[in-house]
Amino acid sequence: MAKDRIFLIAPGFTDPKRDDGPFICPYCNQIEGILASFPDLATKLEVTRLPFPRPRQPVIDLIGEDNQGLPVLVLGDNPPADAKMAGGQYFINDTSRILALLAERHGFPKVH
């Protein structure tokens, strides 16, 4: 099975439109928490942390400019029926669904 790839915004970023940072993305941070809590399971994924500013070229290269919002899980194989498709890649960009898929596909604990 090809590895699933997850793209997150690197925590501690600044926003050029604001002067009260640093910031975290609350959606990405939910996933960061589970990755940090279960580091052995995290090795089953390819994790990429990108800077906050757009364009986010690694994501654009895979699933297009319209889909560069993060977090996003780009699926390696066996996509679920609700996966979106762009650029020949299946992906999920809903945080709750990403967390559910991490449990289903990679053995992370389920979010309760």
How would you briefly describe this protein structure?
Helices cover 31% and strands 19% of the residues.
Residues in helix, % = 25-40%
Shape: globular
How many separate domains make up the residues? 1
The largest sheet, given as strand count, sense and whether it forms a barrel, is: 5 strands, mixed
Describe this protein's structure.
With 112 residues, the protein is an alpha+beta fold. It has one domain (5-106). The protein is 31% helix and 19% strand. It is built from four helices and five strands; from the N terminus they run βααβαβββα. The protein has helices at residues 26-37, 39-42, 57-63, 95-106; strands at 5-9, 46-50, 72-75, 84-86, 89-92. It has a five-stranded mixed beta sheet with strand order 2-1-3-5-4, sandwiched between helices. A hairpin with a 2-residue loop joins strand 4 and strand 5 (89-92). The longest helix has 12 residues, at 26-37. The relative contact order is 0.22. The mean pLDDT is 96.
Q: In terms of topology, how is this protein built?
A:
Elements lengths: L4 E5 L16 H12 L1 H4 L3 E5 L6 H7 L8 E4 L8 E3 L2 E4 L2 H12 L6
Parallel strand pairs: 1-2
Antiparallel strand pairs: 1-3, 3-5, 4-5
